[in-house]
Amino acid sequence: MADITELTKFARSKERDAALFFQGREEFITDIKYAIQNAQENLRAGESTTSETRLFYGAPGAGKTSLLGEIAKRAEQGTFGAIRPIIVRVVSGKSLNSEEDVVLQIAEAIKKDAIFRTTSHSNATLKAAFPTIFGGSLTKGQIQNSPKATFLNLKQIIKDLSPSRTLLLCVDEIQNIGPDAKEMIDLLHQGNHTLPIIPVYAGLGNSLRVIMSHGISRPASGYIHTVSALAVEEAQAAVNAMLTQFKVARGKKTGDWPGVLAQRSDCWPQHLHNGMRALAMELIRPDINGELDRVDPNTVFAREQNLREQAYGWRLSQTFQQTQGLLSQIMHHITVQPHNLAELESLVLRLDQKAPRDPTLRAFSLPEDRDLEKYIHEMMHQGLLQEFSEQDEAGRITGTLRCPIPSLATYIMRLGGIDPSKAPPK
Ligand SMILES: Nc1ncnc2c1ncn2[C@@H]1O[C@H](COP(=O)(O)OP(=O)(O)OP(=O)(O)O)[C@@H](O)[C@H]1O
Ligand SMILES: [Mg+2]
Q1: Can you give the C-alpha Rg of the chain in angstroms?
Q2: DSSP 360-401
Q3: Which CATH architecture has domain 26-226?
Q4: What's the pTM value of the predicted model, to 2 decimals?
Q5: Which of 395, 351, 354 lies closest to 372, judged by CA?
Q6: What percent of the chain is modeled with pLDDT above 90?
Q7: Closest ligand 1 atom to the C-alpha of 66?
Q8: Which of 61, 258, 367, 379 could share a disulfide with 239, CB 3.0–4.6 Å?
Q9: Which of 57, 270, 310 to mutate to test the pocket of ligand 1 (most atoms within 8 A of CB)?
């Protein structure tokens, strides 16, 4: 008998809730494991940890936050070795603008860490070791008459209380850093604080550009990872896991739901999640009562389509709504033929020049400020465009710009009245 109560909770979950049926990303998780092992070896050798930064970036709904959540979960389960790292979750890159903010968040995580709570360190020892952080309120800006929380303070407390553990500093929404974060990012990357900290950043498709635009030099290889669609088998496994967890029996006529939802969602995590929610919404109807055979696939598809279009609609900021004609044409061109940044810039300029000069038809030309760079940047930020590193025929690595989700490209072309099956005009 299907678990209608749990299915109902799932159907009502929000689209960015932590992944209940997390699949894949093993390569990333293994990479984190190696980084932790390296840091552990450095610790044993009395050396500091340098250049272990990781950046996971991708379009909205690619599963970056879920990946950070999974890393924390695996740490808890002991996947990264017997000496568990301390996980620090920071919700926005904005925190990197201030040393005090970062240090306080690390201290807070140490304080909450289960191993600390079960060791012999009493609260009094903690307070004595680090009065600024453990003495009173942790709220930023409320500490009065006490020195600011600095890495120097933190070093002392880690040396006293946690000498053998590494620290995974997981910062989400890294694209929100400001120019003031340059020093912090460099410090964390170079390990000049001499603490065993591994910075793990997650952010939108423009994250690397934002990091570099603040003067941070191009990071070492192994730093950057693109988070994109799941593999077909992984997407199917998520649907299977859902049906099993909610005890939904596969009936005699039941179609291949895992296969169908994987295909309809382009294996894109957010759409897949919404597809599974759409199926759950049908399963909980009193007349269906958890019986897969009674579900009408077309109703599920219509619900899924609706959720997806809402998600796409939110991405089309005012700038894109006002330049819909131009945007659709750009999508059409880059879908047919990959472009690097310079090629894309000249394409946009060419399309803009060809646009009718009638001011009522602004939809085909650049926005009023005519800022080409800003326009392309906004496309990356919203996940309409993403830079992929690819090897060309001569074996050279080039940065290619593409729309990361095929159905999003199609959606935008159709909005502008373009038939995606036709070639774009020369
Ligand atoms: N590896 C995965 N396996 C299964 N489902 C996933 C996976 N990753 C993410 N999801 C699902 O996809 C949805 C979107 O994921 P998430 O919020 O992590 O994306 P994001 O990249 O952080 O998006 P945003 O840029 O909007 O913050 C979540 O509801 C989650 O359930
Ligand atoms: Mg997120």
Answers
A1: 25
A2: GGGGGS--TT--HHHHHHHHHHTTS-EEEEEE-TTS-EEEEE
A3: 3-Layer(aba) Sandwich (3.40)
A4: 0.88
A5: 351
A6: 49
A7: 18
A8: 258
A9: 270
